[in-house]
């Protein structure tokens, strides 16, 4: 199991080749390759300026849209995972 | 449905090819391609330095002018959407 | 009508081709193309570090000198407008 | 008249071609073209982190040495002016 | 022995050539070469904005995934070590 | 006389060509050309985050080692001067 | 004698050509040339955000590993010295 640190979130990428998830077709902008995935693990959060922990804004199971070539991609137990920062998640697909 | 996170706003782009909306003709500056759209979803806001949430400055239904190649473009239910940060919205068209 | 957000100001550009306004001839520096215009709309201001709003330093009707290739240029009702940040206004022409 | 905003200062450039003013010969460093001029107008200052205004450190009439290719150069009533930020003034010539 | 300073952590790199550790196969993203290793030493932490020490989020013995070409690689007693900052550790492998 | 502003310090450069002062031979690093000089004038200091003035850490007469291609070089009364920021002074030669 | 300022530390470089000190063989990463040396002088520290001085984390006599092409190299009394910032010291060799 991979336990993300700080404000990191681990996502299982859904069909990275096809780029269609639940009816969504993603068009890429300049320098951006948007993709969707399902959150599989969430870090404890990071410290804010006032010394309190700011928790990531997503939870395990959320289907999310993330907006950048970011994070570290890892293959684990046959799954395509991506470790990225909470701020790189653009929206939750509901 | 897409629920934007933090200070993100989702906009439905209006006629991105023609660039004329309600009598406005947009001329692009160097490195900027201004466009207009209608706000379809607004995030909860982001934390300010004092730990209070700063809400986005637009609301659902606003017609807005945004000023940069920014955000993640998404096609959803046949609509052209753009997920961008509140700070990238330049003005409200009234 | 365009209502600027945050610390943005909308300016109606005066004779952008000729670069002479009220006796002023503008010479451009490296990477800078100074121009003048008249303020037509002012945003509500932005939040300072102490959580108070800092209002833009110009008001509607001011003739101003701005110092950069910045903002979003827009044509509206036949006028050449520029949406820019308060900090990009260099001086008021009195 | 040009009234500078924020921490800006307007300087009348003295002999920008020759680079000798009152016995001073200026040698340029890499990427820097030092020049001197006389302050003709001073902005009201900018807000510091504690919300108080920090006034520019020069006053009208000061002969100054400024250290960068910065600001907006303007010709006004036959004078060569430069609108620059207070921090770009290196020293007062006394 | 190497005692890391501040928020630095020293890691013993595990099979940097093969990139497979405990069933994990690492795929590299643009500009990133993810690797795993075992923590062998941890710094005392760094000062946060409130003057309190923020300890690194890993401890000696943790198997970690780090996400960048960062730190200083050192050979010591035949081991391949890497001195990096706590923030460059993406996740703990459990 | 040149009166430096803010945290600036004016230094009279000692033998900039030879690079040997008081037994010190300076070797340049990548992108750095270290030199020594004598402090001839010191600015009043700059404001810290708490609103108090932080005075430069050198005084008139100090022989100093500075570490970068920085500041504005000026010839004045036959002397080679350099106006630089306090933070660009690396050490005092005692 | 060289007295470093602020958070600077002066190090006497040990065998910069061979890169082996006390059994350590240093391998360089991209853009980094790690080296070791002995601390010969330590600055008084720098001001933290709360106005208190943060002392450098090493003391005279420490053998250290530093991680970048940083600082100003100086030859003094036949010794190869390096003036660098405290943050550029990666670890203490014990």
From TrEMBL, chains A, B, C, D, E, F, G:
It is found in: Cytoplasm. Coiled coil: none annotated. SMART domains: Cpn10 (SM00883). Pfam families: Cpn10. InterPro entries: Chaperonin_GroES (IPR020818), Chaperonin_GroES_sf (IPR037124), Chaprnonin_Cpn10_CS (IPR018369), GroES-like_sf (IPR011032). It comes from the Bacteria. The keyword Secreted does not apply. NCBIfam families: PRK00364.2-2, PRK00364.2-5. This is Co-chaperonin GroES. It comes from Acetilactobacillus jinshanensis.
């Amino acid at each position: 199991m991979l336990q993300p640190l700080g404000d990191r979130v681990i996502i299982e990428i859904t069909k990275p080749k096809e780029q269609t998830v639940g009816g969504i077709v993603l068009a890429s902008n300049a320098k951006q390759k948007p993709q969707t995935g399902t959150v599989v693990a969430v870090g404890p959060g990071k410290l804010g300026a006032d010394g309190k922990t700011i928790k990531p804004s997503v939870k395990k199971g959320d289907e999310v849209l993330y907006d950048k070539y970011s994070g570290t991609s890892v293959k684990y137990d046959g799954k395509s995972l991506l470790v990225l920062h909470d701020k790189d998640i653009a929206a939750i697909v509901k």
